[in-house]
Amino acid sequence: MSEALKQAIGLFSDKGLKVSIGKVTALSGNTCTVERENLPPLLDVRLQALKGDFSNHLLIKPKLNSQVVCLSVDGETAETCIVQYTEIESVEMSIGGAVLKVENGKLQIKNSAADLKELLTELLAELKTAIIQTPSGIGKFSPNNKLKFEELKNKTTQLLE
């Protein structure tokens, strides 16, 4: 067991709270299954403190086969939630319609009106075909500029989902 997990258990157990450590073996929606050594598995372990779908939330999903620390809710073993993770699969935060999600090495930033990846992709595509008005007539971006715009578009796709 890692030193960080031992410290996390100490923080909770010193307060008389029921704490378990186990391995995440299945994920389903906002819950998971946690297998424990020499103990029955914990089913429907909450990834959030309370059950339900909330418009403003923070949802952390652990990686399969990672170790987690679970805390019983109101002292009930059948009612548990995760309070510490060794590895994280994804994090999603939603506040007031704005969403920030980190998953598979990419970010997603959006709200009900706009998506950052779409905006940047559109902007870079528009720049590649832009016509520039100058005192001496119509101009365009140089081939070097267009290559740079394409490079930026590719990097945006690598970073944003």
Topology record:
Blueprint: H1 3-13, E1 19-28, E2 31-36, E3 39-46, E4 57-62, E5 67-73, E6 76-85, E7 88-95, E8 98-103, E9 106-110, H2 116-128, E10 132-134, E11 137-139, H3 143-159
Helix pairs in contact: 2-3
What does this protein structure show overall?
It is built from three helices and eleven strands; from the N terminus they run αβββββββββαββα. It has a five-stranded antiparallel sheet with strand order 3-2-1-5-6, with helices on one face. It has a four-stranded antiparallel sheet with strand order 4-7-8-9, with no helix packed on it. It has 161 residues and is α+β, with helices and mostly antiparallel strands. A hairpin with a 2-residue loop joins β2 and β3. It has two domains: 79 residues, Nucleic acid-binding proteins (OB fold (Dihydrolipoamide Acetyltransferase, E2P), Beta Barrel); 46 residues, no CATH class.
Summarize this structure as a short list of keywords or feature phrases:
OB fold (Dihydrolipoamide Acetyltransferase, E2P); 5-stranded antiparallel beta sheet; 3 helices; alpha+beta; elongated; 161 residues; 4-stranded antiparallel beta sheet; single chain
